[in-house]
Amino acid sequence: MKLFYSFPRGYSSEITKAREDNEFDAWVDGKFGKFIRETISDDFIMEIGDAGFSVDFVYETDGDVFLKTLGGRIDA
């Protein structure tokens, strides 16, 4: 199940700093990837973009948990 999650506005200062420090991908993985691995599953692929990230879960049930926990939308 592939989902898209948009970065909340409350993270704009952290995002700006991470981009300025050339650590944006690491920041996204540390903030969101780590949370997903620790609370949902290790079985996913994350693609990071400017406005958010896509996460493709191996198991649909993991995607359902993500949607219920963090929100987001199904990315066709």
Short description:
With 76 residues, the protein is of the alpha+beta class. Helix content is 46%, strand content 24%.
**Unreliable stretches:** none
Order of helices and strands: EHHEEHE
Rg calculated over all Cα atoms? 12 Å
Shape summary = globular
* Class based on secondary structure composition and strand pairing: alpha+beta
On the 0-100 scale, what is the average pLDDT?
A: 95
* Percent helix range: 40-55%
Summary tags:
3 helices; four-stranded antiparallel sheet; 46% helix; globular; 76 residues
Describe the structure in your own words.
By secondary structure, the protein is of the alpha+beta class. It is about 45% helix and about 25% strand. It is built from three helices and four strands. Strands 2-3-1-4 form a four-stranded antiparallel β-sheet. Strand 2 (about 45-50) and strand 3 form a beta hairpin. The radius of gyration is 12 Å and the shape is globular.
